[in-house]
Design brief:
The structure holds two protein chains of two kinds.
Chain A: H1 2-42, E1 43-44, E2 55-56, H2 59-66, H3 70-101, H4 107-114, H5 116-119, H6 122-135, H7 142-166, H8 170-178, H9 183-212, H10 215-220, H11 228-238, H12 241-265
Antiparallel strand pairs in A: 1-2
Helix pairs in contact in A: 1-12, 2-12, 3-7, 3-9, 7-9, 8-9, 9-12, 11-12
Chain B: H1 2-40, H2 53-60, H3 62-94, H4 100-112, H5 115-126, H6 131-139, H7 151-175, H8 179-187, H9 192-220, H10 224-229, H11 236-245, H12 252-277
Helix pairs in contact in B: 1-12, 2-12, 3-7, 3-9, 4-7, 5-7, 7-9, 8-9, 9-12, 11-12
Classes of the chains: A mainly alpha, B mainly alpha.
Chain lengths: 278, 282
């Protein structure tokens, strides 16, 4: 009997061990690239068969900062992302309200039409975007790149906001009007606090999409509108892997901040469909 | 009459509210797509005339079949692997063991960081001077393993990048599952494996499928990963980009024809997938 118990215990332990090993492997699979990127970006004279860099340096960051013009490029990236967020949100608030609360006939069909830009790979219409923008002289302008980003950001913002508005409880609105609140008061004191989390998550996702976007940016950028992903891509192409690694590390920092926000503000399940891997 | 007018005004208002969304759709997606289609029907380098020569040339080229097969192969195999990874992972995370929050956050990492960063990190890590290869050559004393710039390597990188869609949807479905069903099954005498095989898996299958559609969609259109880590293996997206960047003058018509083929393939495959699924994707 005792032996049997020990046997069962051993199996249970083995199962635990298996789970722990599995999770560790998974963590290693996800995080290892970042670790080595971080090491690469601070390592000097790291050649051949060394496991770790022999000397540490911040020289690559300095290089990225001055030669790679990271401050200016970060400014570009943030301006473009901000423009894309504002445009997508301005598009999505009325459209999302109509979809969520005004009983649009044929809603399903119309909504899937709106979501089409997320289903078709961006590269498939990027050439058309580039040609139109050339004609309108929108290439190499902040607003042009931001408009291109809006093409993929707006559909998702509409999706998120329409479900947010749909979830507004009619009874609460009625209660507000019964208690004597006028339209303005209802909007600021009842509707706004209720939809703010939804708007916030839509903003987070549009920002991340615009910040990470490479395909449409590559087709519409110019000398004055290089974004961080484009600059990193160019650095890889030029063969400066160490500098590219330093830039990539800089590039991650806002993403980690976004991740922190997501974890605080929204359930991860809601994220599905929120990002389009490009 | 007044009622009719009021209704009329309401529908006009609804239409007005919908208009920004549809203006964006028409201006930023439909019109570019139309321009792409028209461009693909023009002779190369000319703004007049209609021709199918670009399609004939692209579809007739010996390399085309390989490009399309590569694109589908990468997307399908990484989607299958993402299911293989996601199911055990979510089953473990469901138990809410110590540190499960950390691993939940870990799932989000590949889709939050820019695709390019992930691609670069994977390239450096699995490259000839990365740790896996150092381990193989230094400790195991085996010949170097080429991962980067190979098809299996690309599949691995795609998996790293696109499995979160499958994992998150599966996790959400799994957590929405009523535990009492499983308890009922085990009370009725089913062992752990039987419960998993006959109860849990069939119930979460729709979630897995819905998630895998998203993974497939992302993997099919993947651009930055094959651009940086693909080397000579160029799926459709990179092949289109090459037409614009590597040829001088840029081959816009050819690139457009390839774009149209890519869009058609994607839509066809997705509609088949959804017909099989019989449920809309989010």
């Amino acid at each position: 009997m005792n032996l049997l118990r020990q046997y069962i215990q051993a199996i249970l332990n083995a199962r635990k061990l298996l789970i722990v090993t599995f999770l560790l492997c998974f963590g290693l699979f996800i995080y290892a690239p970042f670790t080595i990127m971080l090491l690469r970006s601070v390592g000097k004279d790291w050649f051949g068969k060394a496991w770790l860099p022999p000397t540490l340096t911040l020289g690559w960051y300095d290089w990225a900062w001055t030669v790679g013009q990271v401050p200016e490029i970060t400014k570009n990236t943030l301006i473009i992302a901000a423009m894309a967020v504002v445009m997508s949100t301005l598009i999505a608030i009325p459209t999302g309200w109509a979809f969520g609360r005004r009983g649009v006939p044929g809603k399903e069909v119309l909504l899937s039409l709106i979501l089409l830009p997320r289903m078709i790979p961006p590269i498939a219409y990027a050439l058309g975007v580039a040609r139109i923008f050339y004609r309108l002289h929108l290439i190499d302008t902040h607003i042009g790149v931001a408009l291109a980003h809006t093409a993929i950001c707006a559909p998702y913002a509409i999706l998120v906001l329409s479900s947010t508005f749909e979830g507004l409880d009619e009874r609460v609105l009625e209660a507000a009007s019964v208690c004597g609140a006028n339209a303005v008061r209802t909007f600021f004191h009842v509707i706004l606090p209720m939809v703010l989390p939804g708007i916030l998550s839509s903003v987070i996702f549009t920002f991340t999409n615009s910040y990470n976007e490479l395909t449409l940016t590559l087709m519409t950028y110019g000398v004055h509108t290089k974004t961080l992903p484009v600059r990193t891509y160019l650095a890889i192409g030029e063969g400066y892997l160490e500098v590219a690694n330093a830039m990539a590390v800089i590039l991650i920092i806002p993403s980690l901040f976004v991740l922190f926000m997501i974890q605080r503000q929204v359930a991860p399940e809601k994220l599905v469909g929120g990002f389009k891997g490009v | 009459m007044a009622d009719f007018l009021r209704r009329q005004r309401q529908s006009v208002l609804t239409l007005l509210m919908l208009s920004p969304g549809f203006a964006g759709f028409l201006g930023l997606f439909f019109y570019p797509m139309l321009v792409t289609v028209v461009r693909s029907l023009r002779p190369e380098g000319q703004d007049m005339g209609w021709t199918l020569a670009n399609y004939v040339e692209f579809l007739g080229k010996p390399g085309t079949r390989q490009v399309i097969l590569l694109t589908f192969g990468l997307a399908i195999s990484s989607t299958l692997l993402s299911v293989v990874l996601s199911v055990p992972l979510t089953l473990v995370l469901r138990e809410k063991l110590w540190g499960h929050r950390f691993f939940r956050l870990t799932i989000l990492i590949p889709i939050t960081v820019p695709g390019l960063v992930g691609a670069l990190g994977l390239l450096v890590f699995y490259g000839s001077r990365g740790w896996p290869n150092l381990f193989i050559t230094q400790i195991l004393r085996l010949p170097k393993l080429n991962v980067t710039y190979t098809v299996p390597g690309l599949i691995l990188f795609y998996l790293w990048h696109y499995f979160p869609y499958t994992a998150l949807t599966t996790l959400a479905t799994l957590e929405g599952l009523d535990r009492s069903i499983e308890e009922a099954a085990s009370v009725s005498g089913a062992n752990g494996r039987q419960v998993l095989r006959h109860i849990v898996l069939p119930l979460i299958a729709p979630g897995i499928l819905a998630g895998s559609v998203l993974t497939f969609m992302a993997a099919f259109g993947s651009f930055s990963i094959p651009l940086v880590t693909g080397g000579n293996y160029r799926p459709l997206s990179v092949a289109i980009y090459t037409q614009i960047r590597s040829f001088s003058p840029a081959r816009w018509s050819m690139g457009s024809a390839m774009s149209v083929v890519m869009a058609i393939l994607q839509v066809t495959f997705l509609s088949i997938y959804m017909r099989v699924l019989r449920r809309p994707i989010a």
